[in-house]
Design a protein that fits this description.
Layout lengths: L1 H15 L11 E8 L5 H8 L2 H4 L2 E8 L2 H9 L5 E5 H9 L4 E11 L1 E5 L14 E4 L4 H12 L8 E4 L2 H10 L4 E4 L3 H9 L3 E4 L6 E9 H6 L1 H20 L1 H12 L3 H4 L7 E5 L2 H16 L20 H6 L10
Helix pairs in contact: 2-10, 2-11, 5-13, 7-8
Length: 328
Protein backbone atom coordinates (compact mmCIF):
# COMPACT_ATOMS: atom_id res chain seq x y z
CA UNK A 1 0.00 0.00 0.00
CA UNK A 2 2.80 2.39 0.89
CA UNK A 3 4.51 1.60 -2.41
CA UNK A 4 1.25 2.40 -4.24
CA UNK A 5 0.89 5.73 -2.39
CA UNK A 6 4.52 6.64 -3.18
CA UNK A 7 4.07 5.91 -6.90
CA UNK A 8 0.82 7.87 -6.95
CA UNK A 9 2.50 10.90 -5.40
CA UNK A 10 5.38 10.74 -7.88
CA UNK A 11 2.98 10.35 -10.82
CA UNK A 12 0.90 13.30 -9.62
CA UNK A 13 4.01 15.45 -9.22
CA UNK A 14 5.14 14.70 -12.76
CA UNK A 15 1.65 15.34 -14.16
CA UNK A 16 1.33 18.68 -12.37
CA UNK A 17 4.83 19.91 -13.26
CA UNK A 18 4.62 22.56 -16.02
CA UNK A 19 6.53 21.88 -19.22
CA UNK A 20 8.74 24.92 -18.67
CA UNK A 21 10.09 23.42 -15.43
CA UNK A 22 10.93 20.05 -16.91
CA UNK A 23 14.52 19.43 -17.84
CA UNK A 24 15.61 19.99 -21.42
CA UNK A 25 16.05 16.22 -21.72
CA UNK A 26 12.27 15.76 -21.64
CA UNK A 27 11.77 18.15 -24.57
CA UNK A 28 11.92 16.96 -28.17
CA UNK A 29 14.86 18.60 -29.92
CA UNK A 30 14.87 20.09 -33.42
CA UNK A 31 17.09 22.49 -35.36
CA UNK A 32 15.52 25.48 -37.11
CA UNK A 33 17.23 27.27 -40.02
CA UNK A 34 15.59 30.70 -39.98
CA UNK A 35 15.76 33.71 -42.24
CA UNK A 36 16.23 36.37 -39.57
CA UNK A 37 13.75 38.99 -40.75
CA UNK A 38 10.18 40.08 -39.91
CA UNK A 39 8.92 37.54 -42.46
CA UNK A 40 9.89 34.90 -39.86
CA UNK A 41 7.95 36.67 -37.09
CA UNK A 42 5.93 33.60 -36.13
CA UNK A 43 8.98 31.43 -35.48
CA UNK A 44 10.71 34.37 -33.77
CA UNK A 45 7.72 34.90 -31.46
CA UNK A 46 7.29 31.18 -30.80
CA UNK A 47 10.91 31.01 -29.65
CA UNK A 48 10.90 34.26 -27.66
CA UNK A 49 7.58 33.61 -25.90
CA UNK A 50 8.34 30.02 -24.98
CA UNK A 51 5.60 28.65 -27.24
CA UNK A 52 7.82 25.86 -28.56
CA UNK A 53 8.56 24.77 -24.99
CA UNK A 54 4.85 24.79 -24.16
CA UNK A 55 4.41 22.27 -26.95
CA UNK A 56 7.25 20.16 -25.55
CA UNK A 57 9.94 21.24 -28.00
CA UNK A 58 13.52 22.38 -27.59
CA UNK A 59 14.21 24.36 -30.78
CA UNK A 60 17.76 25.51 -31.50
CA UNK A 61 17.94 28.29 -34.09
CA UNK A 62 20.53 29.11 -36.77
CA UNK A 63 19.91 32.43 -38.54
CA UNK A 64 20.44 33.24 -42.22
CA UNK A 65 19.88 36.26 -44.47
CA UNK A 66 17.70 34.42 -46.99
CA UNK A 67 15.25 31.53 -47.09
CA UNK A 68 17.35 29.93 -49.82
CA UNK A 69 20.27 29.61 -47.41
CA UNK A 70 17.93 28.19 -44.77
CA UNK A 71 16.46 25.54 -47.08
CA UNK A 72 19.88 24.64 -48.49
CA UNK A 73 21.00 24.03 -44.91
CA UNK A 74 18.10 21.65 -44.30
CA UNK A 75 18.66 19.83 -47.60
CA UNK A 76 22.34 19.50 -46.66
CA UNK A 77 21.49 18.03 -43.25
CA UNK A 78 22.62 21.02 -41.17
CA UNK A 79 19.13 21.70 -39.79
CA UNK A 80 15.75 19.99 -39.60
CA UNK A 81 13.24 22.77 -40.33
CA UNK A 82 13.53 25.78 -42.65
CA UNK A 83 11.69 29.07 -43.02
CA UNK A 84 11.77 29.80 -46.73
CA UNK A 85 9.96 31.44 -49.64
CA UNK A 86 8.36 29.76 -52.65
CA UNK A 87 11.39 30.33 -54.90
CA UNK A 88 13.73 27.88 -53.11
CA UNK A 89 10.82 25.44 -52.66
CA UNK A 90 10.09 25.40 -56.39
CA UNK A 91 13.77 25.09 -57.29
CA UNK A 92 14.11 22.13 -54.93
CA UNK A 93 10.95 20.49 -56.30
CA UNK A 94 12.17 20.86 -59.88
CA UNK A 95 15.50 19.35 -58.88
CA UNK A 96 13.72 16.34 -57.42
CA UNK A 97 14.70 17.05 -53.82
CA UNK A 98 12.49 15.09 -51.36
CA UNK A 99 11.27 18.13 -49.45
CA UNK A 100 8.02 18.40 -47.52
CA UNK A 101 6.14 21.72 -47.58
CA UNK A 102 4.07 21.60 -44.38
CA UNK A 103 2.62 25.11 -44.11
CA UNK A 104 2.74 28.72 -45.17
CA UNK A 105 3.07 31.33 -42.42
CA UNK A 106 3.37 34.77 -44.06
CA UNK A 107 3.16 36.72 -47.30
CA UNK A 108 4.17 40.23 -48.31
CA UNK A 109 5.08 42.33 -51.35
CA UNK A 110 8.65 42.64 -52.63
CA UNK A 111 9.64 46.25 -53.37
CA UNK A 112 12.07 48.45 -55.31
CA UNK A 113 14.19 51.21 -53.75
CA UNK A 114 15.82 53.62 -56.18
CA UNK A 115 18.50 56.30 -56.03
CA UNK A 116 16.82 59.64 -56.67
CA UNK A 117 19.64 60.73 -58.94
CA UNK A 118 18.76 57.78 -61.21
CA UNK A 119 15.40 59.48 -61.89
CA UNK A 120 13.37 56.26 -61.85
CA UNK A 121 9.78 57.49 -61.53
CA UNK A 122 8.02 54.86 -63.63
CA UNK A 123 8.59 51.28 -64.72
CA UNK A 124 9.83 52.48 -68.11
CA UNK A 125 12.55 54.53 -66.41
CA UNK A 126 14.27 51.29 -65.40
CA UNK A 127 15.68 50.99 -68.92
CA UNK A 128 19.46 51.25 -68.94
CA UNK A 129 19.72 51.14 -65.15
CA UNK A 130 21.75 48.90 -62.85
CA UNK A 131 19.36 46.89 -60.69
CA UNK A 132 20.32 44.59 -57.81
CA UNK A 133 18.42 41.39 -57.04
CA UNK A 134 19.12 38.14 -55.17
CA UNK A 135 19.39 35.13 -57.45
CA UNK A 136 17.32 32.06 -56.61
CA UNK A 137 14.85 33.96 -54.44
CA UNK A 138 11.54 35.75 -54.91
CA UNK A 139 13.61 38.85 -55.59
CA UNK A 140 14.66 37.36 -58.93
CA UNK A 141 11.11 36.43 -59.93
CA UNK A 142 9.87 39.87 -58.90
CA UNK A 143 12.59 41.53 -60.98
CA UNK A 144 11.58 39.55 -64.05
CA UNK A 145 7.88 40.39 -63.52
CA UNK A 146 8.71 44.06 -62.99
CA UNK A 147 10.68 44.24 -66.23
CA UNK A 148 7.88 42.45 -68.04
CA UNK A 149 5.35 45.04 -66.83
CA UNK A 150 7.74 47.77 -67.98
CA UNK A 151 7.93 46.22 -71.45
CA UNK A 152 11.61 45.46 -70.89
CA UNK A 153 13.83 42.40 -70.74
CA UNK A 154 17.05 41.65 -68.87
CA UNK A 155 18.93 42.90 -71.93
CA UNK A 156 17.54 46.40 -71.37
CA UNK A 157 19.08 46.71 -67.90
CA UNK A 158 22.20 45.63 -66.01
CA UNK A 159 21.29 43.09 -63.35
CA UNK A 160 23.59 42.73 -60.34
CA UNK A 161 23.26 39.67 -58.08
CA UNK A 162 23.67 40.73 -54.44
CA UNK A 163 22.66 39.43 -51.03
CA UNK A 164 19.97 41.60 -49.39
CA UNK A 165 22.40 43.04 -46.85
CA UNK A 166 24.81 44.04 -49.65
CA UNK A 167 22.24 46.15 -51.50
CA UNK A 168 22.15 49.24 -49.30
CA UNK A 169 25.95 49.78 -49.35
CA UNK A 170 25.94 49.31 -53.13
CA UNK A 171 23.16 51.88 -53.59
CA UNK A 172 24.92 54.31 -51.26
CA UNK A 173 28.17 53.90 -53.20
CA UNK A 174 26.42 54.53 -56.51
CA UNK A 175 27.38 51.16 -58.00
CA UNK A 176 23.68 50.36 -58.58
CA UNK A 177 20.66 52.53 -59.37
CA UNK A 178 18.01 50.46 -57.58
CA UNK A 179 17.49 47.25 -55.67
CA UNK A 180 14.65 44.74 -55.52
CA UNK A 181 14.09 42.93 -52.23
CA UNK A 182 11.88 42.32 -49.21
CA UNK A 183 11.50 44.26 -46.00
CA UNK A 184 13.17 45.36 -43.78
CA UNK A 185 15.94 46.02 -46.32
CA UNK A 186 13.78 48.61 -48.08
CA UNK A 187 12.98 50.42 -44.84
CA UNK A 188 16.63 50.24 -43.80
CA UNK A 189 17.63 51.89 -47.08
CA UNK A 190 15.09 54.67 -46.69
CA UNK A 191 16.25 55.37 -43.15
CA UNK A 192 19.96 55.34 -44.01
CA UNK A 193 19.82 57.35 -47.24
CA UNK A 194 16.79 59.57 -46.56
CA UNK A 195 16.08 62.06 -49.33
CA UNK A 196 18.65 60.42 -51.62
CA UNK A 197 16.31 57.48 -52.32
CA UNK A 198 12.74 56.94 -53.45
CA UNK A 199 10.40 53.95 -53.40
CA UNK A 200 9.06 52.95 -56.81
CA UNK A 201 5.34 52.16 -56.69
CA UNK A 202 5.29 48.45 -57.55
CA UNK A 203 2.46 47.31 -55.28
CA UNK A 204 0.87 44.11 -56.54
CA UNK A 205 3.70 43.14 -58.89
CA UNK A 206 4.78 40.13 -56.82
CA UNK A 207 3.80 38.89 -53.37
CA UNK A 208 6.28 36.51 -51.77
CA UNK A 209 5.14 33.78 -49.41
CA UNK A 210 7.12 32.47 -46.46
CA UNK A 211 6.78 28.86 -45.44
CA UNK A 212 7.90 25.93 -43.32
CA UNK A 213 9.73 23.09 -45.06
CA UNK A 214 11.35 19.88 -43.82
CA UNK A 215 12.71 16.81 -45.59
CA UNK A 216 10.24 13.98 -46.25
CA UNK A 217 12.36 11.46 -44.33
CA UNK A 218 12.41 13.83 -41.34
CA UNK A 219 8.63 14.22 -41.41
CA UNK A 220 8.16 10.46 -41.60
CA UNK A 221 10.53 9.87 -38.69
CA UNK A 222 9.40 12.82 -36.55
CA UNK A 223 5.66 13.46 -37.11
CA UNK A 224 5.20 14.48 -33.48
CA UNK A 225 7.88 17.18 -33.69
CA UNK A 226 6.39 18.63 -36.88
CA UNK A 227 2.89 18.61 -35.40
CA UNK A 228 4.05 20.33 -32.21
CA UNK A 229 6.04 22.86 -34.25
CA UNK A 230 2.95 23.77 -36.28
CA UNK A 231 0.85 24.02 -33.11
CA UNK A 232 3.38 26.49 -31.70
CA UNK A 233 3.14 28.57 -34.90
CA UNK A 234 -0.66 28.67 -34.63
CA UNK A 235 -0.28 29.86 -31.04
CA UNK A 236 2.26 32.47 -32.20
CA UNK A 237 -0.15 33.72 -34.88
CA UNK A 238 -2.86 34.21 -32.26
CA UNK A 239 -0.44 35.97 -29.92
CA UNK A 240 0.84 38.31 -32.66
CA UNK A 241 -2.70 39.30 -33.62
CA UNK A 242 -3.73 39.84 -29.99
CA UNK A 243 -0.59 41.76 -29.01
CA UNK A 244 0.64 43.72 -32.07
CA UNK A 245 2.63 46.30 -30.09
CA UNK A 246 4.40 43.63 -28.06
CA UNK A 247 4.96 41.57 -31.21
CA UNK A 248 6.69 44.52 -32.85
CA UNK A 249 8.93 44.84 -29.79
CA UNK A 250 9.81 41.13 -29.81
CA UNK A 251 10.49 40.92 -33.55
CA UNK A 252 12.37 44.22 -33.82
CA UNK A 253 14.69 43.16 -30.99
CA UNK A 254 15.34 39.80 -32.64
CA UNK A 255 16.12 41.21 -36.09
CA UNK A 256 18.10 44.21 -34.87
CA UNK A 257 15.61 46.93 -35.77
CA UNK A 258 14.19 49.76 -33.71
CA UNK A 259 10.47 49.30 -32.98
CA UNK A 260 9.75 52.71 -34.48
CA UNK A 261 11.30 51.52 -37.75
CA UNK A 262 9.37 48.24 -37.87
CA UNK A 263 5.99 49.69 -36.89
CA UNK A 264 5.38 51.62 -40.18
CA UNK A 265 5.88 48.47 -42.26
CA UNK A 266 4.29 45.95 -39.86
CA UNK A 267 1.00 45.94 -41.78
CA UNK A 268 2.91 44.86 -44.91
CA UNK A 269 3.26 41.40 -43.39
CA UNK A 270 0.27 39.07 -43.37
CA UNK A 271 0.88 36.36 -40.78
CA UNK A 272 -1.30 33.31 -41.32
CA UNK A 273 -0.55 29.63 -40.78
CA UNK A 274 -2.11 27.66 -43.62
CA UNK A 275 -1.88 26.20 -47.10
CA UNK A 276 -4.22 27.87 -49.56
CA UNK A 277 -4.45 29.54 -52.94
CA UNK A 278 -1.83 32.15 -52.01
CA UNK A 279 0.86 29.49 -51.53
CA UNK A 280 -0.15 27.37 -54.52
CA UNK A 281 -0.38 30.34 -56.88
CA UNK A 282 3.08 31.51 -55.79
CA UNK A 283 4.59 28.06 -56.34
CA UNK A 284 3.04 27.74 -59.79
CA UNK A 285 4.01 31.28 -60.79
CA UNK A 286 7.59 30.69 -59.78
CA UNK A 287 7.70 27.35 -61.59
CA UNK A 288 6.37 28.96 -64.76
CA UNK A 289 8.97 31.71 -64.45
CA UNK A 290 11.71 29.09 -64.25
CA UNK A 291 10.35 27.42 -67.38
CA UNK A 292 10.02 30.71 -69.27
CA UNK A 293 13.56 31.78 -68.38
CA UNK A 294 15.02 28.27 -68.79
CA UNK A 295 16.30 28.57 -65.23
CA UNK A 296 15.63 24.96 -64.26
CA UNK A 297 17.44 21.60 -64.06
CA UNK A 298 18.00 19.65 -67.30
CA UNK A 299 15.11 17.46 -68.35
CA UNK A 300 12.37 19.51 -66.71
CA UNK A 301 9.62 20.17 -69.25
CA UNK A 302 6.72 21.53 -67.22
CA UNK A 303 5.40 22.80 -63.92
CA UNK A 304 6.15 20.12 -61.31
CA UNK A 305 3.45 18.13 -59.59
CA UNK A 306 3.44 19.99 -56.27
CA UNK A 307 1.30 17.26 -54.75
CA UNK A 308 4.58 15.36 -54.42
CA UNK A 309 6.07 17.94 -52.04
CA UNK A 310 2.93 19.25 -50.30
CA UNK A 311 2.24 17.52 -46.98
CA UNK A 312 -0.86 19.10 -45.44
CA UNK A 313 -1.75 16.21 -43.11
CA UNK A 314 -0.03 17.50 -39.94
CA UNK A 315 -1.69 20.91 -40.27
CA UNK A 316 -5.05 19.45 -41.25
CA UNK A 317 -5.00 17.27 -38.14
CA UNK A 318 -4.55 20.39 -36.00
CA UNK A 319 -7.06 22.61 -37.81
CA UNK A 320 -8.64 21.40 -41.06
CA UNK A 321 -9.90 24.91 -41.88
CA UNK A 322 -6.30 26.02 -42.42
CA UNK A 323 -5.87 23.72 -45.44
CA UNK A 324 -7.91 25.10 -48.33
CA UNK A 325 -5.83 24.61 -51.45
CA UNK A 326 -6.80 22.70 -54.57
CA UNK A 327 -4.41 21.40 -57.21
CA UNK A 328 -5.72 21.37 -60.77
Amino acid sequence: MQHFKFCSIIAAAIFLTPVSSLGAAELLKARLAQNLAPISALTIVAKAQGLFEKEGLDISVSNFTSGKQALDTVIGGGADIATTAEAPVTAAAMAGQPIAFVTGMEYSDIKTLTAKKAAIKSFADLKGKKIAYTAGTGSEVYTTELLKKAGLTSKDVTLVNLKPQEMLPALAAGSIDAYDTWEPHIANGKKALGDDVALLDTKGVYSETFNIVVMQDYLKANPQIVSKFLAALIAAEAWVKAHPEEAIEVVSKAVGMKPEDLKPIWSDYVYQVGIGAKQIDALKAHAQWRLDTKNHPPGVTGVPDFAVVLFPEPLRALDAARVTYKLN
